[in-house]
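Practice problem: predict the structure.
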Amino acid sequence: MNFIHEDFLLHSESARRLYHGFAEHEPILDYHSHLSPSDVLSDRSFGDLFEIWLEGDHYKWRAMRANGIPEEFCTGAAPPYEKFLAWARTVPHTLRNPLYHWSHLELSRYFDIYELLDESSARRIWDSANIQLTQRSFSPQALLRKFKVHALCTTDDPCDDLAAHRELAASDATCSLFPTFRPDKALGVETPELFNRWIVRLERVTDTEIVNLEDFLTALRKRHDYFHQAGGRLSDHGLPYCYTSPCPESEAARIFGNVRSGKPATPDEHEKFASCMMLFFGRLDAEKGWTKQLHLGAMRSVNSRAQANLGPDTGFDTIGDRGQAARLCSYLDFLDQECALPKIIVYNLNPADNYTLAAAVGNFQDSSIPGKIQFGSAWWFLDQKDGIEQQLNALSNTGLLSRFVGMVTDSRSFMSFPRHEYFRRVLCDLVGREVENGDLPNDENLLGTMIRNICYENARQYLGLAIGKPAKVDKVREVAQKERALDR
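Answer:
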């Protein structure tokens, strides 16, 4: 039997029935990714397996460094095949690391390759995959169709023109592409050179002269409106923690003026300015009925030598251990006091905080929408079997798993869509195990409806994206139900 097989990760009959009957055929709504809109629009061709699979993948770079692979084969100038071979030599050492599961799942689902990847199989796998990559079935739009991705949300700077999104919306592409408003650079008052350079871009795209804080907020509101007109219904913030230091707008205006004149904000001033801005962004999202995403807890670029030599996003970020609960509750409470609390998804990076944050979001649910404040899917260092189960358990024990909006790829690679399959298998295995133990009723309709909703339907209803409900989804479900009836 192949390592990746039909019942991979499904360890009970109940798990297998739930997965194959209710999860396997659901479409994908990937509402948080870092994929390139221009790659989707141009329907980019990938030259080789390195380009589609390894380029820019800091997960793999970290493993390769840990395996003693020189940097030349990670981010350096080594030829593509040599980099792939270095990765193949590393894969056998990733046993019990999620990379071992992901790598073989991706090879099987994209290339129908079930051979284990190592140094001896590297050339065969490289050649087989590269032959297949010459086919149009491996272009981004073809892959979106193959994996039934009905909607994809990218992550976009407020200054981005969103031209690719608009062109795709007017095309006959089967996957709907939506922008996500990510204004992290609007908080960067501690680095005047970078902040002011970004302000120049913001002035250009809004045709606004930004002299003071009022001008700045007006320009950001214009861009928020622009994203809304382009179909965007989500924002996103990558924060070490929620900023909640009281800051009157007059003080924020003073800090802004100093930074515009080249004076960096102190750490205390940065906290205050960021707190003021996060309330502003929360109000914007609430006004338009958007969903705000909060990615909390990362410590960025902790290796200063690597940062200087290689730059950001090269695999030197880590899990932070700052206190999160009090700050998160304060932020949500500030907005709630103003009746300006939008739908929010909170992603946690530190497993020690799972129950803390899962319980915290429950304090701000209201009757306006089921699951208004979501404890988001396992993220980054936690988006593997153990981390997914921990997130599901914390959510289940403190809130309503049945209202969960499911998994995202959070990826820059078009080879990451099997992450949804991986999550669905882990989810069905967890629920199926409890059915077998007698902890949950053996009611296929009850449990299957919950599984199906978590995989797709909850997110579709919650996010309010203009993707409709394709009739073919119901057709696929109908066929799956008939097949289950025949099996019984």
